[in-house]
Amino acid sequence: MASRSTQILEAAARMIARRGVRGLRVEELAAEAGVSTGLIYYHFKDRTGILRHTLAFINDRAARYTQDRPAGAEPLGPREELEHALLLELQDTPEVEENSSAWGELRASAVFEPVLREDLARATLVWVQEIAALLGRVHPLSPAAALAAAAERLTALVEGLSMRWLSGGLAIDHARTLLKEAVATELGHLEAARNS
Amino acid sequence: MASRSTQILEAAARMIARRGVRGLRVEELAAEAGVSTGLIYYHFKDRTGILRHTLAFINDRAARYTQDRPAGAEPLGPREELEHALLLELQDTPEVEENSSAWGELRASAVFEPVLREDLARATLVWVQEIAALLGRVHPLSPAAALAAAAERLTALVEGLSMRWLSGGLAIDHARTLLKEAVATELGHLEAARNS
DNA sequence: GTCTATAGTCAGATAGAC
DNA sequence: GTCTATCTGACTATAGAC
């Protein structure tokens, strides 16, 4: 099932989350994945190739855990679903922390590695649209532009809070509280705009 | 006036903004600063020492341009001052872009370099308190905790937007618009909370 | 305090066998 | 597809003269 290259990408996500993009050593990655360095270059061409494919890999994985709802769970209301979707990225479970940490690293690296930008921009857009759609289910009458702007703010806030959490300055519980309040604030704003 | 070590730190901020922390080469830094590598190690001990001092340096510099208002400018109202303070970090003038970019890099690096965390946390706290104070001047009756939370959200949002801007996915004008709306949203929320 | 020269290390990448 | 062995270049850090 898990092909060799998948195995390498899983290890790469792990290593990036643990040591950062800057700390990613191809030889170390090889050890972690249980393969040789030669094989890594065979599959991904060079260091940048590893990063590009790892970015795609964590996006797929995030898309998967975003949509998976536990089988027995009762269906959530639109508002709960929105909160749930945003809070997903601020959890200190190993899988999510790994994804958030790697995502943050890749975002930061993209400032100086243009090859990463396009994929990152695409993935961000998908995320923003997903949140905008959820906002639209809470406030169906709000104009699309207002929903999109709110979604951009909320997702950018998640990234900002996530960075602070991971860099040690902000407790995860507090980050989650701040985010929930931001959701309330944005929803209140959409409400108010509609009634004017 | 500009001592040798200041000269080196100015160059370091420039290099980090241009190439990132990972891309900072001591030899390149030496060339940029017009000194030898030996001198850099003499002043800053090692690569980490360079990073730590550069972080302190850009904080001081940001504190300076935050407080400097042009001499002839008419005094701003509290609301305008708040917006002004937040938008400061989202400008594409060379000096600010350099500071924002270096700040973002150092923030991202701190996830994996514990030595940077303490200074970063302290600097963040100062910034948050400054914004909270400005919020308090707009809404003097709001409880301190609400002001602090709003300030944390707004500053985290600035960092999130700044990252997206620098990594190429978000136009600066749009980032500024989103931030202005966020200020309005947060102020509206403080207002609403007071009337309940 | 400042420079020059260099030691020592390590990481990215490739060649070639299997 | 996968591994072993290795090359080459680059970068940090130090020693020692001035």
Automatic annotation (TrEMBL), chains A, B:
Q: What is this protein called?
A: TetR/AcrR family transcriptional regulator
Xref: SUPFAM superfamilies: Homeodomain-like, Tetracyclin repressor-like, C-terminal domain
State the Pfam families in the record: TetR_C_6, TetR_N
According to the entry, every stretch annotated as the HTH tetR-type domain falls at 2-62
The question of whether DNA-binding is a record keyword is answered with yes
Name the InterPro entries for this protein.
Answer: BetI_C, Homeodomain-like_sf, HTH-type_TetR-like_transc_reg, HTH_TetR, Tet_transcr_reg_TetR-rel_C_sf
Which UniProt keywords are listed? DNA-binding, Repressor, Transcription, Transcription regulation
Q: Does the keyword DNA-binding apply?
A: yes
- Which residue numbers delimit the DNA-binding region? 25-44
